[in-house]
Amino acid sequence: MERKKSLDMLTLERLIARLDRNHTNLAYLEEELNRLRAGYKGECYLDSLTDPFTNSNFSTIKNLTLPSYFETIQYDQIHITPSFILIIECKNIIGKLTFQPEASSLKREINGVENYFRDPLWQIHRQEEGMKKILTELGLNIPVLGYIVFTSTNSSLHTANHQLAKPQKVIKSDQLTYHIRKLIKENQKVYLTDEQIKALTLSLKEFSIKPIWKDPLKKYNLKIEELNLGMRCPECNRLTLKKVKFRWVCECCSYSQKQLDQEQFIDYFLLINKKAKLKDLCAFYLIDDVRGFKHSLMSADIKCVGNTKSAEYVSWIHVIE
Question: What DSSP string describes 13-39?
Fold first, then answer.
């Protein structure tokens, strides 16, 4: 299963695509996007290492957000086997990295500059405890294990006290497959059948929580007037897709399609609001044929709530109260 981009990453991609190339915030936004892309690249690399293990008794779930008490916990990878559940947290950080458990932080030193991150050991502990809580609620008793995997070759791992060994839960990506095989060999007691693995996989996916909509324009100090409007062409990525008779045709690259895909409507719901009236969508995508556009929304399976006058189309990727 291919890993989906995070909403933060997708939002920045769509935001940058709608800004002029000389916009004053563009360099900062592209720097933020590159940071997210580096993390995504690291996660995809880990996927390439763990995907070959996948079979009927090694089920993998990627990029899942689950409830835990009064908060949510995000998981990069969850692997379900007959004998254990393995949680993998991916870290793509370069530099000299020093674990500081007494300060609940990870110090990064690079080019003479120090930065501090949340303690990944506490993060993996929180993920393990959250998973144990869900399993208890489901009446399942199976060991939950976890690794923090650093994917960059340009990082070195250290502890604040040099007499302490590196935490066992912390490994580099080139060690991951060895450790998975070692866990499989050392954990032979069967807790779950293949059917139970399949059922648990489905249950965890059903428990998954959609993200809350957050205003990216406010976050990055932008106004809607600064965005270029129009329907995006999936071929050349320009905002030049227009309805010509019975087809959508790109004025730039001549790409054409009969119907719009759901993903082509995502920009409004990522950048402007999680709900939209028909007139607002038409204004954002520069649509004159309101009736035809309404049909396009229906064909793309975008849900509409409310009566005729108050009807609103709602995001399929966010929590809707």
Answer: HHHHHTS-TT-TTHHHHHHHHHHHHHH
